[in-house]
Amino acid sequence: MNRRLAFYSLLLFGMSQVTLAHTPICDCYDNGDNTITCEGGFSDGGTAAGIPMRIIDGAGKLLIDGAMSAQSDFTFTKPDGNFRVEFEGGDGHIIQIDGRDIEE
Amino acid sequence: MVTATSFRSMDATLRNRRLGTGRVRGIGHAVELSCVILLAAFSSTASAHFQLLYTPEAALNASRAIPLALVFSHPFNNGYTMSMGEPEAFYVISQRGAEAERRKTDLLEYLEPVTWSGVDSQAEAFVAHPPRSVTRSLGDYTYVLRPAPYYEEQEDKYIQQITKTVINVGGLPGSWDEPLGLPVEIVPLDKPYANWVGGVFRAVVLADGMPVPNAEIEIEYLNHEPQIDQLRFAAEAKITAPQGSFITLSIRANAQGEVMIGLPKAGWWGICALDLDDGLEYNDKELSLDAVLWIKATDMLP
Asked: Does residue A76 sit within a domain?
């Protein structure tokens, strides 16, 4: 499997009912033109528009600080070297995707 | 066990007319199902024709290329597989999220004619291997097949089964519960790809966009798993029917056109609503326009 899809566990006690009911979902793929697109949403079909997206290099430096578009996607130029994608799913719950798991 | 060949409910239309009171407008808000229980009143001693639109997995954790097999057969006893003509339409409707736009991708270019082997027969069928780019996004993918009408000699009429199979990538839902505007279709009321064994599945039968009261429904379990790479059904049956009535399960939709079935076994289940559009003809013969929906039940495992 070339691409990793990250899910959040529902076993997060003490969360709000809204958060428990709607699991954040994010996935990314390489467009083959030195850009990467990430898609997001929630398990109830809800939009991810405006959800913060961060691209962080291997040393922990913030490279890109953006947000999901109105279409719940986010495209960025592929960084040199190792990096990870962070999807801020709400209530401090962050989905992380390693750049090495993102493929065409 | 009875092993008849090509039974269909020849009087489906007649019974629909007798029991029905006209199509009800609007699917309705509150889903008030007068349950039609699996293993219900109408017995059948043989298996039914089912258009298969098969892929191994219904709920994928991540995107990948999705192989498909299009076979016209009898899914429970695999007694007879029938040759298909060139499909009239074959496409997938995808939607990533409830508020996203639907996308339609035509799949006719990916069809490959093959000879498919059943346990006791061979017939012309199709497989398709669309590239991963077709299913690269998250969301629901509803595959739609409108096969060429099939001439059923025993009944001297044609059968055309407009078939849907819904899969999901990544757990982000889309338009699984939306009608697609097909002439006839079965619209899910539960996610077709997320059903535990032991649960129930509900749907509503539509013709020309309106619910069909008391529609005659046939249900079969896909008892011989298709092996796409080998272009055949597995020879081994998963289960054995204790009596002919259990091969094709016959039930009725309720007055709102809604059906509910139990799911006692993991795997694919086919639901077929018979003869939904009266008065159709093809090649100067009667045409039975049926709607088929495939759903998958999954075991609860540790």
From this structure: yes
Interface A:B, Cβ pairs < 8 A: 53
Say how many domains are in chain A. 1
**What is the pTM for the complete model shown?**
0.85
Q: Distances from the Cα of B73 to the Cαs of A57, B36, B125, B161, B179, in angstroms?
A: 54, 25, 10, 12, 26
String of DSSP letters for B8-49: --TTHHHHHHHH--SPPSS--SS-------SS-SB--SS-B-
- pLDDT tens for chain B, 302 residues: list them: 333 334 454 444 434 433 443 334 344 444 344 433 333 333 334 568 999 999 999 999 999 999 999 999 999 987 679 999 999 999 999 999 998 999 999 999 999 999 999 888 899 999 999 999 999 999 999 999 999 999 999 999 999 999 999 999 999 999 999 999 999 999 999 999 999 999 999 999 999 999 999 999 999 999 999 999 999 999 999 999 999 999 999 999 999 999 999 999 999 999 999 999 888 999 999 999 999 999 999 999 99
* B63 neighbourhood in chain A, CB within 8 Å: 3, 27, 29
Q: Which amino acid is at B111?
A: L
Cross-chain residue pair A45–B62, CB shorter than 8 Å = no
- Examine residue A61 and state whether it is found in any structural domain, yes or no: yes
CA distance A67 to A83: 17
Domain, as residue range, for A52: 6-101
Using the beta-carbon criterion (under 8 Å), do A25 and B170 form an inter-chain contact?
yes
The answer to whether position A66 is within a domain reads yes
The CA distance from A9 to A18, in Å, is: 14
Kindly provide the ipTM of the predicted complex, given to two decimals: 0.79
The CATH number covering residue A26 comes to: 2.60.40
Q: Which residue is closest to A101 within chain B, CA to CA? A: B62
Q: Residue A39 and residue B138: Cβ atoms within 8 Å? A: yes
In a domain, A77, yes or no: yes
